[in-house]
């Protein structure tokens, strides 16, 4: 795989140049002995203003398909390969409770993946559209999930353009962290959104117990590696976010944060410890994911 390394010293979300190096990240799973593995590394920085964690330089593959044109079975857990009627249900009911728009609601899923959220939107009576840059994920969504090819485009946010103020709801679920310039994509999404419309973003947290435990283990052993982000191997995360990243970004892009929520599905630790670990995660605010609802002013 060929990469171009793009320098990145200012924070993509808040614009600050004030950051510190937190360690190195290898181009493969690191395991217990990353210093004994052969490969290339990038530096991981943490923004001192908002806590965003990001790669510097950012490794950009020659083609996005180098990363994402892999078999759907390899990238997605098998639970995603069959539509579950509970998918995105609580999120859509929250949206309906706070959105006082027209009766016909147009929604866009950016990074539609296998089409699960588009199906959930359709089941709730929304007019669902989507963008999916990976050819193999797009084919699965159209051929296996039955998503209409007239409503799903095999394109990136950068390539696509909709008319201004077309949508009531835009979703970026497990997508924002994969984008090389999330701030630019958010600006574009906001331009496609109606005034008062909502954007849902689900991202990995920059401060999660899973990562903190592994980083602590590396630190104790005197290694300058960290487990944050994965810009050169699956799941190809370029960024990890904090609530503050969105608070600072809301001032630049002029939106209101309606709600943020922290979520943890499962840690690396044995399930038997969940009754102790989950309350600990809540107290220390070290959940794996952050969900944010934004409203266009
Ligand atoms: Zn920042």
How would you characterize this protein structure?
By secondary structure, the protein is α/β, with parallel strands linked by helices. The protein is built from nine helices and 13 strands. The protein has helices at residues 65-68, 72-75, 89-98, 116-123, 135-143, 182-192, 209-220, 243-253, 274-284, and strands at residues 3-6, 19-26, 41-47, 53-56, 58-61, 106-110, 127-131, 152-153, 167-173, 193-204, 239-240, 255-263, 289-296. A seven-stranded mixed beta sheet has the order 8-7-6-9-10-13-12, sandwiched between helices. Strands 2-3-4-11 form a four-stranded antiparallel beta sheet, with no helix packed on it. The chain has a two-stranded antiparallel sheet with strand order 1-5. The protein is globular and about 60 Å long. The chain starts with a strand and ends with a strand. The relative contact order is 0.16. The model has no long low-confidence stretch (mean pLDDT 93). The structure holds zinc ion.
Q: What is the molecular shape?
A: globular
Beta content comes to 25-35%
Strand sequence of the main sheet, in spatial order? 8-7-6-9-10-13-12
Distance between the termini: 42 Å
Q: Compute the gyration radius: what is it?
A: 19 Å
Write the element-wise H/E pattern from the N-terminal end onward. EEEEEHHHEHEHEEHEHEHEHE
Bound small-molecule species: zinc ion
Give the overall pLDDT as a whole number: 93
Could you give a short account of the major beta sheet? 7 strands, mixed
The chain-level structural class is alpha/beta
What is the tally of helical segments? 9
User: How many E strands?
Assistant: 13
The low-confidence runs, each spanning 5 or more residues with pLDDT under 50, are none
Determine the fraction of residues in helical runs and give it as a percent range.
25-40%
